[in-house]
Amino acid sequence: MNFHTRKWVKPEDLNANGTLFGGSLLRWIDEEAAIYAIVQLGNQRVVTKYISEINFVSASRQGDIIELGITATEFGRTSITLTCEVRNKITRKSILTVDKLVFVNLGEDGLPAPHGRTQIRYIKDQFAEEGRED
Questions:
Q1: What gap in Å lies between CA 14 and CA 80, rounded to an integer?
Q2: N or C, which terminus of the chain has less Cβ within 10 Å?
Q3: Per DSSP, what are the bridge partners of residue 87?
Q4: What is the average per-residue pLDDT within 93-115?
């Protein structure tokens, strides 16, 4: 799993207990997962269909730097399934895991549409594809 997105836990991100508010973290995860799905499917029209059980493993406090890791685990005909882990950047201690996030690829009409992808696309490969002249 690659950890690309980092967040700095600030006072506005805290709950009444002085730890990271789960709602803030879930918003960050949904946004990052949507971006990941968009890049993988090559389409900006994707929607969150399903998020499995969310396992809060440990707390994060003000000043922590956390990182979000997301990777594709399955490609359906119109969907992509992802997994996610959030961890402390410095200690590498896991903060949260989500086994399954499903996004659906939409056509211009707003309905599910086949995306034609079957495996993870890496940035280095995308640039190589774009640089080729057929």
A1: 31
A2: C
A3: 67, 94
A4: 97
Question: Is 78 within the bounds of a domain?
Answer: yes
CATH for 98: 3.10.129.10
Q: Is residue 102 part of a domain?
A: yes
pTM, two decimals, is: 0.88
For tokens 């809060």, what's the residue?
Answer: 56
Which tens digits make up the pLDDT trace of 11-55? 999 999 999 999 999 999 999 999 999 999 999 999 999 999 999
Q: How many domains does the chain have?
A: 1
**Residue 124 pLDDT > 80:** no
Residue listed under structure tokens 């402390």: 88
Both tokens assigned to 123: 């940035």
User: Is 99 inside a domain boundary?
Assistant: yes
Q: What is the DSSP string of the chain?
A: --EEEEEE--GGGB-TTSBB-HHHHHHHHHHHHHHHHHHHHT-S-EEEEEE--EEE-S--BTT-EEEEEEEEEEE-SSEEEEEEEEEETTT--EEEEEEEEEEEEB-TTSSB------SPPPHHHHHHHHH---
- Its domain, for residue 47, covers 3-114
Q: Tell me if 51 is assigned to some domain.
A: yes
